[in-house]
């Protein structure tokens, strides 16, 4: 985060600027970058009633803190991941079409909240992402939305003193490993893809990083090492056009 600049949404290195692009996001995740922009009203008023109408139930109301001297925790408009797992973990084989659609919608909500739009806490699935799944064939540009959300999370993370970062860390990590020779894990193996002849099931850029040998060293020590290596990087070491 030391090299990220919110003014340009790029990492500033000695040799120039570099960032995750729409093409990178599409190649790494396979998400569509064409389609309708994911723009909607994020107002959470009445979200419980809307969620109940969409999936048939809502998480219980959070209990008030008993101790008066404790700060009141901010209630997130959404559902805990544990609640989703408990109530929508398994869809019965004899379920009707509407029930299957409900479970599919909740599953997609869970996955995108866990991978594409993480908030840094890892506890809740925000309501607005379920709202975006109201219509299955909406043809949203999910790749564009994921990249924009990642930019915003990086902007906020580099400006606050506390730790924690959200966004699609899978895409950011693989992009970094491909583009920069810093903190890059060793690929243990890369097996042939079984469905390579099916255009709908071709592997993404991330597949080659499926099995890795990651370092288990002290994070604070590795942070200093990686920062030093980034500060000394040369144009020849970068795998992309740094300008």
Order of strands side by side in the largest beta sheet? 1-2-3
Outline the low-pLDDT stretches.
64-70
Structural class: mainly alpha
The rough form would be described as: globular
Order of helices and strands: EEEHHEHHEHHHEEH
Number of strands: 7
Average pLDDT number: 83
How many whole angstroms does the radius of gyration measure? Answer: 21 Å
Helix content, binned percent? 25-40%
Biggest sheet features: 3 strands, antiparallel
Strand content range: 5-15%
The N- to C-terminal Cα distance equals 19 Å
User: In DSSP terms, counting alpha (H) and pi (I) runs of 4 or more, how many helices?
Assistant: 8
Provide structural commentary:
This protein is mainly α. The chain has a domain at 1-29 and 167-242. It has helices at 22-29, 47-55, 81-88, 97-115, 127-131, 142-157, 169-179, 219-231; strands at residues 4-5, 10-13, 16-18, 78-80, 124-126, 186-189, 211-213. The strands form 3 sheets. Strands 1-2-3 form a 3-stranded antiparallel β-sheet, with no helix packed on it. A hairpin with a 4-residue loop joins strand 1 and strand 2 (10-13). It is globular. Residues 3-238 form the Aminotransferase-like plant mobile domain. It comes from Triticum aestivum. This is Aminotransferase-like plant mobile domain-containing protein.
Secondary-structure map:
Elements: E1 4-5, E2 10-13, E3 16-18, H1 22-29, H2 47-55, E4 78-80, H3 81-88, H4 97-115, E5 124-126, H5 127-131, H6 142-157, H7 169-179, E6 186-189, E7 211-213, H8 219-231
Antiparallel strand pairs: 1-2, 2-3, 4-5, 6-7
Helix pairs in contact: 1-6, 1-7
């Amino acid at each position: 985060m030391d090299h990220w600049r919110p003014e340009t949404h790029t990492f500033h290195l000695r040799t120039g600027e570099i960032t995750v692009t729409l093409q990178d996001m599409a190649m790494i995740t396979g998400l569509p970058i064409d389609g309708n922009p994911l723009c909607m009203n994020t107002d959470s008023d009445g979200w419980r009633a809307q969620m109940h109408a969409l999936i048939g139930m809502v998480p219980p109301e959070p209990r008030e803190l008993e101790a008066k001297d404790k700060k009141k925790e901010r209630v997130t408009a959404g559902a805990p991941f544990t609640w989703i797992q408990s109530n929508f973990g398994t869809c019965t084989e004899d379920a009707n079409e509407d029930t299957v659609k409900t479970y599919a919608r909740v599953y997609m909500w869970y996955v995108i909240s866990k991978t594409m739009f993480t908030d840094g806490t890892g506890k809740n699935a925000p309501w607005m992402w379920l709202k975006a799944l109201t219509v299955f064939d909406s043809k949203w540009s999910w790749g564009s939305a994921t990249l924009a959300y990642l930019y915003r999370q990086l902007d906020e993370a580099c400006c606050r003193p506390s730790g924690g970062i959200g966004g699609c860390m899978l895409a950011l990590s693989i992009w970094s490993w491909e583009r920069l020779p810093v903190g890059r894990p060793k690929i243990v193996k890369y097996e042939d893809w079984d469905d390579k002849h099916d255009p709908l099931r071709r592997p993404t850029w991330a597949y080659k990083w499926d099995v890795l040998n990651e370092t288990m060293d002290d994070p604070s020590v590795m942070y200093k090492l990686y920062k030093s290596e980034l500060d000394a990087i040369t144009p020849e070491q970068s795998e992309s056009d740094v300008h």
